[in-house]
Amino acid sequence: MVAVVREALAAQPEGVRGRVRVVEGDGRDTGVHFLPGSFDVVLCHGVLMHIEEPDPLLAGLARMLAPGGLLSLLVRNGDTPALRPALTGDWAGTLAALDTPAHTPRIPAAPEHGESPSRPGLEVWADRLGSLTATLAGIGAPLHTWYGVRVFTDLTAGGTALPGTPQDMVALLAAEDRAGRTDPYRRVAALLHLCGVRG
């Protein structure tokens, strides 16, 4: 991924390249690279699903936020683990997911239903909204708002093509956007987008 970023960055004008710094390191060690309160916005999208214990990373990210700064998280939804296998007719997987204790803050997703898009076959973690809400409050960046992501597109049968016409794609995106902001639909989304704000 670092190589991909560097390659994409090299193709940008100098005005862009000069404003970007690629840093390799452990996200829990943000203090090595950045002063507290260095950023107005910190994005952590598609990362927590690869980390078994996310609290130290989240604390480090929150520490980098300036007062009023936004911490944006995109995570797999751990509140609906049985939904995806059920929609594909995997009843054994559905039953196994239903047996996951409700109090478990993070759950390993079944590889066939929770694969990393970039690394197929890799088991990933899913987070529960309630647990992340508590974590964000505990690190000084309480939840401000949250959205569901991929509400409908993940409910279609595997391999179903996206709409072919631009008008249909616009309608699909509008439906996803609206459902992602509306209960109860946002609660069954494949992903959750949480926004915490530093006090």
From TrEMBL:
Name of a matching Pfam family: Methyltransf_11
GO terms (BP aspect): methylation
Organism domain of life: Bacteria
All residue ranges annotated as the Methyltransferase type domain in the record: 1-72
The name this protein goes by in its record: Methyltransferase
Membrane-spanning parts: none
KW Ribonucleoprotein (keyword) present: no
Tagged with keyword Metal-binding: no
